[in-house]
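Known limitations

Structure tokens in this collection are predictions and should be treated as such. Users comparing against experimental data should check residue numbering before alignment. To illustrate the layout, the record for Epoxyqueuosine reductase is reproduced below. The input appears on top and the generated tokens appear beneath it.
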Amino acid sequence: MSSTGIRSTPDYTALARDIKRWANELGFADAGISGTDLGEDEQHLERWLGHGHHGEMEYMARHGTRRARPAELEPGTQRVISVRMDYIPPGTANAWSVLQDTEAGYVSRYALGRDYHKLMRNRLQKLAERIHAVVGDFGYRAYVDSAPVLEKALARNAGLGWIGKHTVLINRHAGSYFFLGELYTDLPLPVDEPASAHCGSCSRCIEICPTQAILGPYRLDAKRCISYLTIELRGSIPEDLRAPMGNRIFGCDDCQLVCPWNKFAQATAEPDFAPRHSLDGAKLIDLFAWSEEEFLKRTEGMAIRRTGYEGWLRNIAVALGNAPPSTSVREALGARADHPSAIVREHVAWALAKQQNPA
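Generated tokens:
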């Protein structure tokens, strides 16, 4: 836990108000403060892991209780400052239109621009520096999806939103299109009221899921989730899940797209999140033609890098297989039929077979 200087004794209530104002000034849409008790969420996590719903994401189980016990991850932690940052840039191509365009590749809206991790960590560091200027020495550590942290539960407890039936955090004034980050701290700040849930009887997110990955309210089987299949999974995509993927080549937003609360979603003012290389609606054949060098160059500093070039071609091959039969698609697939990667060859062969026999 980082610390510098000599701590004075501040008015913590006034400091909490200042922290939220500073967070807004640094580009965060919202900030809240919570304690460290996550007992019920720890039990939910253990049940989820026990059912094997994490798939190949072994890191979810590797850290034991530290994910749900902030003071075990960072000794001395008393409070967690949670922040959120909206990520949909104005002018982004309509998501439904891209999903319905069989020639286009759908990339989850969060991944169209610069990777948010470093950007948000830098802002959290600046927030910590502002706090230090007032209180002097204090312990802290900034996280943005970079350690075993139950960020959605912490954000809920900090009043930033509730965890929806699709397991995504929802803010009643801003929907769910936002990133989360945390500042673990040893400051005894006053905590905010946890957010109450407002999903009611709505089940649109469960019904829309292309692969039925949402088994029921608050129960997600990641092994069936298209985001997991296209990003986290390193091997072959199960054949029965390929057709339901449609043209989704990196992530999936369907459960958020149908959420009524996203009528309140706010456009981001962060220019770094603007779509790069027309990825908000680029053509599948063009993306499939990228060499590895082009992939690495064009995805530099982007979340898309996480899938790797092999995964990129695998995902696009599936989308091309799901496209209406055409000579141009078959030619594009044929050009990759002898690719050095066995994973790519397997998915290209499946796609070619589906092109030749779409039924």
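For this record: DSSP finds 16 helices and ten strands in the chain. The first helix runs from residue 12 to 25. Please report discrepancies through the issue tracker.
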